Amino acid sequence: MTRPDDISPPTTRPLSRVTLSGPDLGTVDLEFEGEPVQNGAAAEGVEAARTDAPPAGQAAPPDDLPDFDPRLYEAALPRPEPLSAESFLPVLPPAQFAALLDDLRGELSLIPDEATRAALHSRARLLALNVEQYRVNHEQARSALTRVLAETGVGVRSSWERQQEHLSFMNAASGGVERDYEAATAAIEQARARRFEALVSVGARPDTTGAENLYTQQAVMTLAREGHAIRPPEQKSGSKRVFNAFAVFSKFFVGVISGVSINLLFNPESRLYLTLIALTAGVMFSVLLLWLVDELAYRAKLAPGTPGMAHPRAYTAGILAVTALYLGVEGFLNWDGILRVTAEIAANAAQQGQLTDLSAAPEPDAAPQHWSLLTFTLALVGMAAAAALIQGRERARSVLERERLAARVADLKAQGTLESAARAADHVTYLERARDRLAPPRDVTSPDHARLNERVLNHWEQERDSQVQSVSARLLGEAQGVQATLEDFAAQVQAARFPPPRRGLRALLG
Question: What keywords were assigned to this record (predicted)?
Answer without folding.
Answer: Membrane, Transmembrane, Transmembrane helix
